[in-house]
Amino acid sequence: MSSLTRREFVRKTTLVAAAAQLATSLRATSTGSAPAPAAPVRAPDTLHWLEGTPAALPGATWGRPWPRGQHPRDTTFQLQTTDGAAVPLQSWPLAFWPDGSLKWTAHAIPADAPASAEYRITAGSPAAPARPVKVTESAEAVEIDTGVIRAVIGRRGGDLIRTITRDGKEIARAGRLVCQLQNRRDPAAIRVESFTGEIAAVTVEQAGPVRAVVKIEGKHRQTGGPSTGSTSSPQAGSGQSGPRPDWLPFVVRLYFHAGGEMVRVMHTILFDGNAEQDFISGLGVSFTVPLRGELYDRHVRFSGPDRGVFGEAVRGLTGLRRDPGKAVKEAQVAGRATPPLAEWDQRVVERLQYVPAYADWTLLQANADGFQLRKRTHAGHTWLDAAQGQRAGGLGYIGTPAGGVAFGLRNFWQSHPAQFDIRGATGDAATVTAWLWAPDAAPMDLRPYHDGLGMDTFDKQYNGGLEITYEDYEPGFNSPEGVARTSELHLWCLAATLARETLAALQRTLEAPPMLANSPAWLHQCEVFGAIWNPSDRSVPARAAVEDRLAAYFDFYVGQREQRRWYGYWNYGDVMHTYDADRHEWRYDIGGFAWDNSELSTDLWLWLYYLQTGRADVFRFAEDMTRHTGEVDVHHLGRFAPLGSRHNVQHWGCSAKQLRISTATNRRYYFYLTGDERVGDLMREQVEAGRALLKFPPGRKLAFANEQGDQSRGTPTSPDSVGASMGTDWGSLAGAWLTEWERTGDPKMRDRLIASMRTLGAQPKGLFSTGLILNVETGAFEITKSDKVSVSHLNAVFGLVEVCAELIALLDVPAFKTAWLDYCELYNASAEEQTKRLGSALRANGLRQGHARLTAYAAKLKGDPALAQRAWAEFARDWRGRESATGRFPVTRVEGPAVLRPVDEAVFVSTNDAAQWGLAAIQCLALIGEHQPAG
């Protein structure tokens, strides 16, 4: 892992990129999808737009790594376009190297930043924005002025956003959270209750000059106070019920950029209800838009598929029996103010009151394949079908030529059921509600999907359910208590109704918010994320074949998400675990074979693949997964917090509540690449997650495993100790401690890591020791008295490899490094070698192909060519011992009547294998690529 000079690095990476482009253009593609186009050749240290120069820039935020020792912690930064124009910049630290120098920084630019395809960031004094964000705090409110809009944020009550003005005119007011709850406490008298978000705390996290961030926390309070017999349970899932005034905690962040007219809203709920009784029938964000002017100058817009726009007026002037005039009609269709009435055909003017005006509009996306747009004149009158289609864009507008609001919900159809309501458009103000869960759809049902099937003992659960459906069931553990969901909304506060083309540009911004990205070459040069990956290199046929298979796996899952409709409010972002070739269907309904829930590090595979390729589509897929797995698959409050749930038909349904799912390691990539505050919260939740293991020991069912499972965990000996595995337990905790230490410099986190590493290195059989007991406060392991060896095939496949690569590079603990290299070398070694070194051969050491990357790591650090050759031999055989192919793989098209609709099938693909193969491929190429066999 010798370092190169910067000049050598730039020269070599440029040559590699050029060679990759040439190889891609010359090589014929295999059966299956075509390879992704080669990335353009860029200087490694430039920043570029992830999806190309944006058509509309609301501001942008991104993360940037730095080589160790390059910049002191108090360094300021400047940004320039490649032609030297200064760009206003706000910067803040995300992480530090052990020497205190900057490791990761985050940066923001304003909405009116100079446009450029590429930028360069260097140490220096930043340019000031022409219209800086100004934040004013008082006891009653927080005021944000971007230079274009001014927002007043309440510190108490139900109005999160009290008002937004532009040029002295109010554009929106009364921005609040709304919830409708279907109370099923009495099945014979189901009732709907209304709640509004109530502010408990407001924190200004950033105050400009380029970017301001306000965090608002609270709960939803019942409108009008608690009512007799209202739904609730004092303790979620307890089965008890009684009146309560509030529930459903929320966290909302509001983002503002200098010179910007858009407010970004990150909306998070945490479910704390009783799944048997509490059925959310509507969940959204509501605000009021003042409307000035005549009804025929009030405009409604909704975006549709393929950049389509639905645009009408509240009172239409086209298609009438009498023609008001060409100029009048053109103005209304375009969204401009119509000419004075004197210029109209007077036959229309005299009869305007007889032209219907439509007060209410609803766009419902009930599922991923259909939306309906309706309008009506008033409540109490019928709805008219205005339009239908498959996938709405998730962007709407209500306003006049004097101003209005465009509102967007990101991943609108992907996170169905979603709905937009405009009410009262014929009055002085319209109420807009962006429903994250549509009230016109069926209520949210979070009850368990079965009644327990008689599995009332551990024996039935282990030797029954696990053996037949792979489901780890336990009564009361299949509760959604504490699961969360984050949604992203955009509010543009506009001075006038936008042209249709401009609205379409906002639609693109909503779908893919502009973000500056680092080149893979720069990320690699900075040696972040363990230096166990390399930028994509197709210059050698054997490497190209592995790269082709990596691309094929990713492209296959993108296609499966679409064909299998892996969408929905609680599902979007996850993928399925295992395939059922007989049904030509993923096992969505079979116990532990359904949703993947990060099993075997699918998240890490995608993120390392993004680092390697820099592909925007990979980033977005990984982003969606990070949002989902960090929120929905983890319990953030209640008795299981902050543990995650193993794979299941329902994301929270498995009784195995585990650190390996909630691990901060899966979130680090997105956090550092974007600076996202919500994901930062999720990682911080995990810092003391070890204490949850005191309540729910991870190996509590292993008594039924006989000698088949991991026997490494010991019996706790103190209130702060827990039996913990070296991999799935400690590896996850180490990821959280490492992240917190990097972010804050907290010596307690560093001391925990060092104590863990030293005591693991001191174990009699190293990392193969059995009976391990961890003190969750100090981080130290007790030295086991057993001389037996133990191993689990799961230890190293949930981020341990990636965490250890970083720890060894950051902390000098020789005993741990030796123990880890021994583990890496011996896991896949022959039984004879294992017996010679450990005293006995290992059992339960499956997933040998995925563990080839451990062998590769040992080969690299030891400089052992023979070990490198062994690693490639291991990589060449799948878990069944069969030769494992590279290159793109064929898929089979299955059509009716065998399936409901045509699908592509590759029966050998499983998500476990794909993730582990992908990680092994990326890391073997990076660590021992020069030893790869030629063919």
From TrEMBL:
InterPro entries in the cross-refs: PcRGLX/YetA-like, PcRGLX/YetA_2nd, PcRGLX/YetA_3rd, PcRGLX_1st, TAT_signal
Pfam families assigned: PcRGLX_1st, PcRGLX_2nd, PcRGLX_3rd
Domain of life from the UniProt record: Bacteria
Region (Disordered): 219-244, 705-725
Residue ranges of domain PcRGLX/YetA-like N-terminal RIFT barrel in the record: 46-123
Domain PcRGLX/YetA-like central beta-sandwich stretches: 133-507
Domain PcRGLX/YetA-like C-terminal alpha/alpha toroid: residue ranges: 513-932
Biased composition (Low complexity): 223-243
Polar residues compositional bias, start-end: 708-720
Protein name: Tat pathway signal sequence domain protein
Source species of the chain: Lacunisphaera limnophila
